[in-house]
Amino acid sequence: MPGVSDITWVKLSPATLQLLIDGDLSAASVSAGATLSQYLVDEHWLWRIRLEQIGEDPSSADWIARAAVTDGQVVGHGGFHGPPDTEGVVEVAYSVDPAFRRRGYAKAMLRSLLARVDADPSVTAVRASIRPDNAGSRATIAGFGFKKIGEQWDPEDGLEDVFMRPAAR
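The structure assignment produced for this chain is given below.
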């Protein structure tokens, strides 16, 4: 994508997640080995969920909670809701810091995340769940092979359309 460098992913360890939850951006940056952003602190609700998830299933740490960095700055975060399920399906998740939206970073993050799953033989498909009124996310997945397969009710987001894309082999 013109103007958007490749995304580098910085894994956020449980210790880093806790520091982000605690609002200690400086210590979280030291822990992560990268200069993190206030946006990651603001997402503390998500890090609580992910920290609990890692506590219940340590293997999920390899799939979730990563800062998206390009040109030396954090532009958002992404990963998956967890490791592949029993059928080999992962659900993609990403968010761009509002200060960096509408510049192609979401597509760059998605492209990078899809490359990761396409290279992993344990993954058979990728899900994406998007609210019907989220035009930006719908535009982001367009052209990446996702097809709508149904709908679901999310307790936080309400009605979502569910899309699926087979892993490339």
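Interim note for the steering committee: The chain has six helices and seven strands. The mean pLDDT is 92.
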